[in-house]
Design brief:
305 residues; Quinone Oxidoreductase, Chain A, domain 1; Rossmann fold; 2 domains; five-stranded parallel beta sheet; 16 strands; Chloroplast_QOR; ER; GroES-like_sf; Oxidoreductase
Length: 305
């Protein structure tokens, strides 16, 4: 089969489209014929060696964790899915080696769920990591219906999912963003506030009674959010490496079938939409990484297979 690989840590230029053996399908796994693979910043950061102290990497690596496709085979004792089922998932395994930038990927059943019926494969492939990150962050801070949550960097890939999920859960959402993204945030159901000097005062004007929880999806928002929340322990940051030391939750996103199924239900109910900014063929993975690294893409980047 064809797959994107890299043989050592490096830049996007190290990526190659090559022939590799078909993956084996073990017990409680399915073989997925990949239709689309989501691209996330962690993919190129991992390839650059930034997570070497955290994750075990076995070269050559097929990158990618997000997938949407069709079940082609099932392993022993795999009764959850049948050949022909459309699935999507966050296929993060015990070590980094055989990912989703390929024609086929073996996926443990704990990492997948049935694909949202109302979304294309490209749209579905954009959800798993970012959608789970947003939902699990909301869960970690105990966000509940009727509360007010501030999402820092609300127009980004994870932030935009966070807004939609929080709204669907019955929360009031205040989202920080540049002025050019304010109409976009309003369309998702958030109340936008402008980045920059005076941000705390602008949030307090919108919520003079205080906020209940805060999510930092940018990396510089923990202290800001802790100055606003009623309880300092109800702040989470996915991206600040010192978050735990600052008293914030630092979720490490987990593959979870139940959570993926919940996100699929939201999508099928029209409460979770996916903006696919770029859908590129598999052999343009390097370009996809370069686009992702600019930090200027509003929406998801996916590879079509």
């Amino acid at each position: 089969m064809k797959a994107i690989t890299y043989n050592a840590y490096g830049t996007p230029a190290a990526l190659s489209l090559v022939d590799v053996p078909h993956p084996r399908v073990g017990p409680s796994e399915v073989l997925v014929r990949v239709k689309a693979a989501g691209v996330n910043p962690v993919d190129w950061k991992l390839a650059a060696g930034f997570l070497d102290s955290t994750l075990e990497v076995r070269f050559p690596v097929v990158p990618g964790w997000d997938v949407a496709g069709v079940v082609e085979a099932v392993g022993d004792d795999t009764f959850d899915y049948a050949v022909g089922d459309e699935v999507y998932g966050y296929v993060r395994k015990e070590w980094v080696e055989l990912g989703t930038y390929a024609e086929l990927v073996s996926a443990p059943v704990r990492t997948i769920a049935h694909k949202p019926r109302n979304l294309s494969f490209e749209e579905a492939a954009g959800i798993p990591l970012a959608g789970l990150s947003a939902y699990q962050s909301l869960t970690r801070v105990g966000a509940a219906a009727g509360e007010t949550v501030v999402i820092h960097s609300a127009a980004g890939g994870t932030g935009s999912f966070g807004v939609q999920i929080a709204v669907a859960l019955g929360l009031r959402v205040i989202g920080t963003a540049g002025a050019h993204n304010h109409d976009y945030l309003r369309s998702l159901g958030a109340e936008p506030v402008l980045y920059g000097e005076g941000l705390v005062d602008r949030i307090r004007e919108l919520a003079p009674e205080g906020i209940d929880a805060g999510l930092d999806f940018y990396g510089d928002g923990i202290e800001l959010l802790q100055s606003l929340v009623k309880r300092r322990d109800r702040v989470a940051s996915l991206v600040d490496p010192d978050g735990a030391a600052k008293g914030a939750h630092r979720p490490w996103t987990r593959p979870d079938t139940t959570d993926l199924a919940f996100l699929a239900e939201l999508a099928d109910a029209g409460k979770l939409t996916v903006n696919v900014a770029h859908a590129l063929p598999l052999d343009e993975a390097a370009r996809a990484w370069e686009l992702s690294a600019t930090g200027r893409v509003r929406g998801k980047i996916v590879l079509t297979v």
